[in-house]
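User: I've been going back and forth on whether these two constructs are worth ordering. Before I decide, could you fold them both?

Assistant: Sure. I'll take them in the order you sent them. The first construct and its structure tokens:
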Amino acid sequence: MRTAEINRKTAETEIAVKLNLDGRGSADISTGVGFLDHMLELFARHGRFDLDVKCTGDTHVDDHHTTEDVGIALGTAFAQALGDKKGICRYGSAIIPMDESLILTAVDYSGRSYLGFALDIPTAKVGTFDTELVEEFWLGFTRNAACTLHIRQMAGANSHHIIEGAFKSAARSMRAAVKIDEDFAEEIPSTKGVL
């Protein structure tokens, strides 16, 4: 089973993550940031990942540390669960409509960290959530998952729909990328022999 358990504690947050890449999409999420909980629940469902995330953070300051650190912990969990990446498809992409928004994502579990972030989120907040934290989450994720991730907005006017579309699209892309390719199940998907 391709699973991971991550425990991360700093002066600002304490996080426990459990991840099963070959799950059914179940989620038990409690970060103290309601909008982030919602995004992680739909990320798990659309990726078919079983995901538990518990976080206690300094949300009395704001949601920044919690959101960024959950991204870091989740990225670390993906890296741990993938191991040497033998047999994975490696690449995945998806274009997801969310009402008026249309979001494209593409991922490569290359071992190289890069985030191409091109969302034009029109409002500074969704509820009490600072929308600039979406990029911070994905930066934390990509740096620790050691993957390249592009997130592109092709259409959209509603901030909630744009962000939700991005999380759903990323989940679908990652689901495709981490899937085992049965034709190459014993091979590293790189001419270098290592990712």
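The second construct, handled the same way:
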Amino acid sequence: MKIKSSTVLRNDYNTISTLAHESQEPIYITKNGEGDIVLMSVDAFENREQVLQHRAAILEAEFSRLSGEPTYSVDEIRRKLKEKYDNA
């Protein structure tokens, strides 16, 4: 975790920008000694969003499984896809 003051951000933006791109981690910016904002590179943010979307999809699938919706093995899916392909 990187922590920098708002003064560093204001006076030396390029250093903070470089740090965000190199570390690929959020940078916590403080104001008057208290947490204020979090900065991160666009790449790091997009990667984080993608991970969160994948987790949400996995949770949705798990909730469906737990609620009794049918599940299929890999072999069953392959067989169904082969049937569709053969019948196309």
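Notes on the second construct follow. The helical segments are 6-11, 13-23, 42-66, 74-87. Strands lie at 2-5, 27-31, 34-39.
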